[in-house]
Amino acid sequence: MERPREGSGPRGSLQSSSGIIVRQSLRVLTLNIWNRQGPWETRLALIRKGLVDLAPDLIGLQEVLAHDGQSLADMIAEGLGYEVAFGAAHDLGGGVLFGNAVLSRWPIARTQVFPLPTGDTDERRSILFAEIGSPHGALPFFVTHLNWKFHHGAVREAQVVAVADVVMREAPMEGLPPVVVGDFNAQPESTEIRFLKGLHALNQKSVYFADTFDQTGAGPGFTYDPAQNPFAAITHEYPRRIDYIFVRGPDKRVRGKPLSSRVVFDEVVDGVAASDHYGVFSEISI
């Protein structure tokens, strides 16, 4: 294989002598799609349009329903050129599964689902691991969704420790920096998020992941906003940032450095938002 050389391609990219552009950054999106609630067909169209406009390389989706081997993620990805992997967290009965999904512009080499601690609650959560065959090498990508209730902080603490254990086991330090995305149902100042950012130890363990929006985003970054989103307004809760893109980096080769981050899918069109959550879109060096 010819070694890429610097060329006249887009900023942050390399160009091979054959003229093929290989971008040196990774575009990542996370979105809780609110399963099929509300005007699903209209919301589906908004989500698909957003993917076309943003053109992310990797997408993590939460609250995905699946039945008979097909999921809402397959509907979202149809005709857009993404490979899809679904990972169940909970069996809702009647053959319907609830979980997370990965959409990848590149081949998905393998996947595995790991259950997360439940505490004394009836919620079932998991983390979906996908090994992505990216042009830069095997890229570890993780999607998760933690317990949602305000008073489940102790359960979420156990869940983020489990998430960190899975990531450290499945993504060796010598490889590409892992990317971890999802709906963590926890605000930036919570113990759960502080643990992931290396600001608090749990169970005598500590880790470090870069919060891409914290490092490169602007404004409060609310992703659950009952003040503006009509589908979130029904809860009468307060606006907060609870959806995240984390990356372990940068490493010695400056892979895994957050370059930019912003809230997306925050438009309301004719009274309809894409979901009850907004998404997060980040660019990461690779």
Descriptive overview:
There is one protein chain. 19% of the residues lie in helices and 36% in strands. It is of the alpha+beta class. The strands form four sheets. Strands 3, 4, 5, 6, 7, 14 and 17 form a seven-stranded mixed sheet that branches.
Please give a quick description of this structure.
The protein has helices at 40-54, 72-77, 153-170, 191-196, 212-216, 230-233; strands at 13-15, 21-23, 25-32, 58-67, 70-71, 83-93, 96-104, 108-115, 126-134, 137-145, 179-183, 210-211, 243-247, 258-264, 268-269, 272-273, 279-285. With 286 residues, it is an alpha+beta fold. The strands form four sheets. Strands 3, 4, 5, 6, 7, 14 and 17 form a seven-stranded mixed beta sheet that branches.
